[in-house]
Amino acid sequence: MARFYPLTVTDLRHDTRDAVVVTLAPREADRAAFHFLQGQYLTFRRAFDGEELRRSYSICSGLDDGTLRVGIKRVEGGAFSTWANEELAVGAVLEAMPPMGRFHAPIEPSQARHCLGFAGGSGITPVLSIIRTVLAREPKSRFTLVYANRQISSIMFREELEDLKNLHLGRLSILHVLETEAQEIELFTGLVDAAKMEALFRSWIDPGSVDMAFICGPEPMMLAIAKSLRAHGIADDRIKFELFASGQPGRAKQKAVSVTAAASAHATEATVTLDGTARTFRIEKEGPSLLEAALAHQIDAPYACKAGVCSTCRARVTEGEVEMAVNHALEDYEVRQGYVLTCQSRPLTDRVALSYDE
Amino acid sequence: MAEAMRIEDYLAEGGVLTSPDNVPARYRGELMRLMASFVDSELAGAAGFAERINDAPGITARIAAARIVAEKTGHAGRVLEIMGEFGADTARYATRHPWAARVARDADLGQVRAGADMRLSVFHYPLTGWVDAVAMNVLMGLATEVQLLELSRVSYAPLAETFREIAPVEARHAALGLEGLRQIVATPSGRAKAQAALSYWWPKVAETFGRAGSERFGMLERLGLRHRPNETLLADWKAAAEAALGGLGLRIGGR
Predict the structure, then answer these.
(1) Could you give the CA distance from residue B76 to residue B36 in angstroms, rounded to a whole number?
(2) Is A302 close to B16, i.e. CB distance below 8 A?
(3) CA B60 → CA B53, B55, B57, B89, B190, distances in Å?
(4) Which pLDDT tens digit goes with each residue over A68-107?
(5) What is the pairing mode between strands A41-48 and A51-58?
(6) What confidence tens digit (pLDDT) does each residue in A117-126 have?
(7) Chain A residue closest in CA terms to B87
């Protein structure tokens, strides 16, 4: 089960108008839990208006920096990122889980490799961690970064990247691609799309020289880059992906409050939604689980262990109330949002509705 | 930067997801189901094979059998670890079922998953001795190679990477099995036993590929969790098995 630890904010720097870089320190006793690998992220939790939100932000420090830093860019309408940018201060204590994520490749100090990184906007944070680590621990390797941003003023870590370039002369090249600002070389204006990738491979980057590629950005950029890398002979096992947070909703939805009358009958009318289709059937309150009932009505609901352990059968209750016999997989905050393990759930009210789509 | 994109369109175009945070609910359910099927099959397969270590002729064969059991259990653990990142209680999961339990040798389960776990139906049948275990391991090992090639392309990147790392080790299990079979068919009685065992396991392993024209395939394909249909994978396995066993002068496929 997930465990959270307190982290104290020891430094806080506004990097651009809407991005903040936060340095964190675990308690002495928790230091080992926060040893990280380059490219990993931290998941934070905080209550907003009594409702718990969890957000993940990538670590931007390298392994040898001796610090734990994350970059947080403000997202339009995002409760956590806005709070971090406007209200968070040195001395504050955040709660975070130990580092997670697999956006990294093994470091090989004796190797002379060419790594190629692509970052879109705040997607730079884990890529920066990788760059710092590779340059420090693989003295013969070099790194090429293609960094996409809307405009110069929104480039995160601009100075830090320049400093790295000077520190590791000749080993770090950076190509800035700006969406809305014209540059001297036309290639560096616009989006990183299929055409841009072709042009980059034609005149700036030799795909045959690339040993590992790292991509972190929004969906269309990830697609275009991955397709182009594959077309140039860079196989999937040499491409590392980190899709950044666009999939995270701005705000967790509250569980729908039931207006159904109190329980009376022995049977319940259950509505189950799967793949956008809702089906309604009757189920005995003391009978089989809601999962079993759904399966008996030819609804292809996902499940695996049927023992409340694996969470494959998770669904969200949107009306009425259900009771779980056993729950070894869902956390309290998920349960508060209305999530249940359907293999363990029986209805309490005369009507229940649940969805596997939410 | 770029415009926003629906996650469904992103997946349909071949995009990959990278952490539990950016996985939609339906995708999560199907991904967990896929992982549970692999974990349960590896655990059940290893548990069944473990009992046959004592039948192995000689030290080399015993070591090979013990190693196969250890590595398959390890592979289950690696995928279970990913399930744990989605909330599964990994400690409880690993001990949840009697993985060594089997049905009667002459039962007919077809493609239906029986019992309370998600193991492929083939792992419900008992192994009767060393030759039987080797024959099953060869046919299922070659099937696993075909399945892992497919699964190495799943759109959940941490899982695809894990399958890519597991695949060569599983391929070695099939190769060890073929080596064992080569020794078994050196005697006429061994050859007869091996032939009988292959005839027993052939249709049961074929069943693990699922139905042709499966209605679930389209949905899984849109999510990037499948790429090639069941019937294509089945044909690949048949070709590989026929090539491998034909070389030993063994008849398969009921012919």
Answers:
(1) 9
(2) no
(3) 11, 12, 8, 37, 18
(4) 999 999 988 889 999 999 999 999 999 999 999 999 999 9
(5) antiparallel
(6) 999 999 999 9
(7) A329
Q: Which of these, B131, B146, B115, B153, lies nearest to B230 by C-alpha position? A: B146
Tokens 């294509």, residue?
A: B232
**CA–centroid distance for A344 within its chain:** 29
Give the count of beta carbons closer than 10 Å to the beta carbon of residue A268.
Answer: 24
User: Is the pTM value of this prediction over 0.95?
Assistant: no
Strands A267-274, A277-284: pairing is: antiparallel
**Which amino acid appears at position A27 of this protein?**
R
Nearest to A304 among B16, B24, B33 (CB): B33
Task: Find the residue in A nearest to B3 (Cα).
Answer: A220
Burial of A302 (0-12, 13-18, 19+ CB in 10 A): buried
Count of Cβ atoms closer than 10 Å to residue A11 Cβ: 12
d(CA A223, CA A260): 46
Tell me which chain B residues have a C-beta less than 8 angstroms from the C-beta of A226: 14-16
**CA of A265 to nearest chain B CA: how many angstroms apart?**
31
Contacts of residues A7-13 at CB distance under 8 Å and 24 or more positions apart, as own/partner, are A7/A34, A7/A42, A7/A68, A7/A93, A7/A94, A7/A95, A7/A96, A8/A91, A8/A92, A8/A93, A9/A88, A9/A89, A9/A90, A9/A91, A9/A92, A9/A93, A9/A94, A10/A90, A11/A90, A12/A88, A12/A89, A12/A90
- Do residues A150 and A179 make contact, with C-beta atoms less than 8 angstroms apart? yes
CB within 8 Å: A41 and B164: no
